[in-house]
Amino acid sequence: MADSTNRRDFIKGALVTGIGLGTGAVGSAAPALDGSGKQTAGHQLPAAPASYRTAAGFSAPPLERLRIAFVGTGLQGGSHVQNFLRIDKVDIVALCDIDELRAREVQGWITEAGKPAPDLYTRGETDYKRLCERGDIDLVLNAPPWRWHVPICVEAMESGHHVAVEVPAAYTLDGCWQLVETAERTERHCVMLENCCYGRSELMVLRMVKAGLLGEILHGESAYIHDLRAIKFSDANEGLWRLEHSARRNGNLYPTHGLGPVAQCMDINRGDRFDYLVSMSSPARGLNLYAREHLDAGDPRRHRNYILGDMNSSLIKTKLGRTILLQHDTTSPRVYSRLDLVQGTRGTFAGFPDRIHIEGRSDAHRWEEMEHYREEWDHPLWRQLEKEAAGAGHGGMDYLEDFRLVECLLNGAPTDLDVYDAAAWSAPCELSERSVAQRSQAVDFPDFTRGRWERRQPFTDLT
Length: 463
Prior knowledge:
With 463 residues, the protein is an alpha/beta fold. It contains 17 helices and 15 strands. The protein is globular, with a radius of gyration of 21 Å.
């Protein structure tokens, strides 16, 4: 489908079919949201091979070169292509997208860089299945709209390929379980591309936490606060599909950017795990008001009811008793923030703007600028790759994320993030919807590690 009108019609139709007639409460229709067919209730948990669930994490044999295929070449997929073109020992062998013009544009970037032209797969919504039949792929990078994340990951792993998937990896619990069970059974990596774990401040704070500078970590605050009203009502890119979620779901639709870095500092899935969540949403005003004030009277989107609460606030309790505030607001005139607060018994870091207080080093009751600690605690990965990351997406963190993925796969090392992180960090999507629909009742997190979280090795600071 080469033109944007067809692309919009296709994606809208797929979303309506997949989401069905739900109005925010998560019930029996939830598995269809992700293309998943199984029910979470009474879920059968097959035994996983010990080779996948080692304490150190799953590792696959090393590779001489990494051969990548892309499914989804839009804004974020295209950004990853640009990054991989700058990393050694990487070959981009195939591109898949329903928009043939975009796929050909990205193909042109690759040939202009002096690389062989990748094959194109543009025959429609399921042409990724034909791509996955190839035997010359090591990694499928999955960056289409959310509803395709789980089906493409499963198809790729079943075909013998590792996968890296954009965020959230899934937005139903059934989808999370499908990723976990398929990765374990096929013994393939399933890595969620949570770029915020590679932010300069986030990696610096992780180093501080691992060195004990903030003491015992007891509380975190995380968020995705980003005014996306104009993007949701646009006629291109995420505007083609993201708005539909706001019309049919009420909860935290995008939890991982803020949650991931805090989870790493708390060793979630590696010594602690998420236990339960409570969630509530404010009234849904922002999108409805924006539609009335900015869309023509004849635009059908102007007359829809958008049920996504402007601010969703969730509280997570961990098995060790820690607490995490998790917020989501993409419909209000607020300045961007992920909160990024990490609080310990000896000090606290808070983001947006970055500031820190360390007992015994900072003036009493006063924040210090984070820059005062940069020379001592800046992460070696940033010092090593600062020049290469310059100009890359999201301030360079996308480049570090892709570089580390390549490095781990080439060396046969466990990846920084794994399928259990992908599942646990994505699970608040459905859990928050359930809690909101049930007057903020507590809902339990599944244990995607099935008890192994107590024995798995903690996160490292990547040094």
